[in-house]
Specification:
Length: 185
Amino acid sequence: MLGRMTSEPEQQIGVGSPDAFQRLWTPHRMAYIQGENKPTGPGQDGCPFCTIPAKSDEDGLVLARGEQVYAVLNLYPYTGGHLMVVPYRHLADYTELNEAETAELGLLTKRAMAALRAASGAQGFNIGMNQGTVAGAGIAAHLHQHVVPRWGGDTNFMPVVGHTRVLPQLLADTRAMIAAAWPAD
């Protein structure tokens, strides 16, 4: 039963009745929760990381393209500027990368950090990849490395208590800002 704290006897609150809670509705997250566009097998069918490179930078939220890997904003970010570095080749495990892919993944990660510092004043980063579904990979079939910018005090009550992330900027605007700050080759 949901209700507000009061000295009055507890009352049953029905559907749609007001209570003491503020709500932020994020229906766009249902696509992620329900696994929309997640590849289900070993092939490339339906893999968003395989289809993004064919889109324009703006439509695909691509920040930079290398020969082996590219950088793209995360559609479901933890913080503003949360991006991923992704190999073009459809593979699941870090050990499957060849030497050129491994080197360029590292290089674009460094450039992503520099761009995020220049564009948003990021003070730190969480960088990593989840290998396999049991390790938390949302799209386990296609390797991707997360670059999550951090700032002092950026963990607040919203994600901790409300299980909601507040992003101050539209993804298209974030993409343009970071792309403009991306270091030259």
